[in-house]
Amino acid sequence: MERCPWAKTPIEIEYHDREWGVPVHDEHRLFEHLVLDGAQAGLSWYIILKKRENYRVAFDHFDPAKVARYRPAKIEKLLANPGIVRNRLKINSAVTNARAFLQVQEEFGSFDAYIWRFTDGQPVTNHRRSPKDFVSRSPLSDAVSKDLSRRGFKFVGSTIMYAMMQAMGMINDHLVACPRHQEVHTIRGTNRAR
Asked: Which structural domains are found in the chain, ordered by start?
């Protein structure tokens, strides 16, 4: 399989072959992407993938209603957890973002409805032919970042949002030669929240 060249280690290959670029509509998984992509800032995705299961346990399986209720004692406990990135700003941002996430759900009915409206509910399929064609941000990620920031979200810069949109399938950035390019293009997200 001629997969995208960033997938080198077994954990990256499994993630690439099963998840990256597949449209996500489940609220908990969307919140997971928001937290993990924020946690990745300044780090490699490999590090976050290795810690993902620890994050799921530490952050109540990314239930935004539970995370929104975290108090200082819980944050101190998270800061002592070696299984996650122990950065106070990133942990605090997860709590702040959970609260903002709930407000977006209330306003739009779901975070899914909010985030996917930026692409009219359809993935943007790029046709990248080589790694040098990759970008780290776009006018779309700029717009999403600006709107999330306006709503009080943290760690949602344009580069972080571009990575999140790739991961959650809003943007299909698999190289054209990668078999997953066409595979994810045909997936329309069967896990839409109801």
From this structure: 20-185 (1.10.340.30)
